[in-house]
DNA sequence: CAAAAACCATAAGCTTGGCCTATGGAGTTG
DNA sequence: CAACTCCATAGGCCAAGCTTATGGTTTTTG
C-alpha cells in the first residue's frame, strides 16, 4: 500500500464521496477514482460497495480505517517536520565555547540567529577547551568556539579571528594613566595569569623572553574570567585575553597589552560528524559576530 | 515523502551502506541509490554525507529517523493486515440465530469454516428473531439465521431450506408406536406449542383448520427448546420445529408430523450493510450446513 | 415530470517514480 | 598494484498518478 493510496482511502472515508475526497486532496475526481479502484484491485478486496452511485464502506474498510488514519496523520507530521528542517524552522543548535567567546561573541551570534530562525532552540555551554572537545566528539555540541587552534586531528579548527592580551588594573592603580601597556611595564608587579603548561602561558613566557623581560605570575588561574575577583580585590594585575568584555565589570581598568602575543579564535567542529543546516547557519552567524566584535575592539583601541 | 522513500531511508540507516540496504530490500543498488538521491532532492536537505565513498547520517537524518522507523513499521503492519484480510485470515464473524438453527446448523457450519479459516474469530448469538433483526441493523451481527422469512424491508431473507414440525412424546407415550403422526392424532391431547400470534402458531392453526381438526394447545412456549422440560415432565406433547436435534435429549420420543406446515429456514442480512469476505464465506458454509442437515433429516425420516 | 445536479466510471495522453543492467570513479586492503 | 568494496551515472522500461473530456445513474428541484 502506497502512501498516496492511504491518503486517498482516508479522504474518501472522511468525505463520504469520491468527489468530495478529490476536492479535499486538490486533485480531479477521475484521478482519485482511479487510485481508489486500483488500490482495491491491489488489495484483493473491495473497500467500498457501489450502491446507487454512492459508496458504502465494507467491513474490511472499517477494519483498517483506524490504522490507515493513524499512519496517514503520521506521514503528514513527518512531512511537516521535514519541511521545517529544510527551512531551518526546527531543531536544536548546541554551541560549546570557552568563557571569553561565550560572553563576547555568542550573545551577538545568538541574537542574530534568533532573529532569523525564531523556532530553533539554542543552547550555549560555557566550558574549558578539553570539555568542548569531548562534547564535540560525543555530539553533545555541534559547534565549539575556543581560543586555541592546536587541537586533536579529529577536531577541525577554523581560525576566525584573533585578539591580543588585556591588562586588568585594580581601579586606582598607577598604571591606569597609560592607554597602553607593554610587558616591560609589568616587570616586578604581582601578576594574575594563566597557569603553566597552557597555550596562553607559554605564549606569554615566549614573548617576554623575546623582549628580554622576566615576568613572575604570582597567582595562576584556569579561566580568564576568574581573574576578575582577584583584581578587584587588589591582589595584582590581570594579564588575560582581550576578548572577554571586561569593561562590564566594575572596579577594573582595562588596558591593551602592546606587542603581546595573539590568541587565535577558533571555530571548532568534529570531523566525524556532519553539521545540520541549522548548525551551518549558526556557524555563519558566529563568524559574523566574531568579525563584528573584533572590529568594535579595534575601533575602541 | 512516499512510502518507498521512507522504507529506503530506514533501510539505509539500519544497514549503514546503500549496497547492504539494497540487499535488504531485494532491489538493485543503483535503484536504491536513485531513490535516496531523489528523496534528498525533494526534501531539500541531505540525509547522508558522502565521505570517502561511505555514508554518514546528517543530524537531520538522525532527527527524523525515529519517526520514519515508526511509520515504516506501521505501514508494514497495515500491509500484513490487508493481506490477511484478502486471504480471509483475520476478522470476526458474528452470527445471530434462533435456537433451532443455532443448535442444528451452526455447529456444522462453524466446524467447516474453522477448518478453512482457523484464524478468524467466530461468535454465535442465540436470540429470538426480533433481537436478531436488531443486531443485524446495529452491525452487532452480520449474518442471521431464523425460521421466518417475513421480515422488515431492510432485512434480506434468503430461504435456504425448510423443515416441518416434530412431535415430542414423553418417553412412554402410547403414540410412540406410530412412526409418523398427523394433526388428527393429536386432537384432544395436551399440547405444548408456540404462543399465539406467532408465525408457527398461525400456520399450525391454519393447517388444522384445513384438515378439519381443532387443536388445543394447553401450554404455550416462546422458544421451541423450552418444550423439552415440559415434555419430559409428562405435561403433554410438544409440537415444535423438526430442526432442533431433539434426539439429543433423553426421555423424549420424536415423531415427524405428517402433512403439517413447513418452517422456512432463512439466512438474514442487513440490506444497509455490506458483508465482509469472511462473512460471505460463512454464509456459504451456513447454506451448505443447512442442506447437509436437512438431507440427514430426510434420510432418517 | 422533465430538466438540472450530483455522483462515479472510463478513455486517451502525459509526466514522473521506481526498477533494471551496464559501467565508471573513488577508496581500502592484501 | 591489483582486487575488492562502495557509490553514482546512463539509458531504457513499465506502472503510478495526474489531467481533460465524456457518458451513465440516481437524486433533487422547479
UniProtKB/TrEMBL annotation, chains A, B:
Short name of any one Pfam family annotated for the protein: LysR_substrate
Keyword set, alphabetical order: DNA-binding, Transcription, Transcription regulation
Gene3D superfamilies: 3.40.190.290, Winged helix-like DNA-binding domain superfamily/Winged helix DNA-binding domain
InterPro entries: LysR_HTH_N (IPR000847), LysR_subst-bd (IPR005119), WH-like_DNA-bd_sf (IPR036388), WH_DNA-bd_sf (IPR036390)
Residue span(s) of domain HTH lysR-type: 1-58
Similarity annotation: Belongs to the LysR transcriptional regulatory family.
Protein's name in the database: LysR family transcriptional regulator
Species of origin: Mesorhizobium dulcispinae
Organismal lineage: Bacteria, Pseudomonadati, Pseudomonadota, Alphaproteobacteria, Hyphomicrobiales
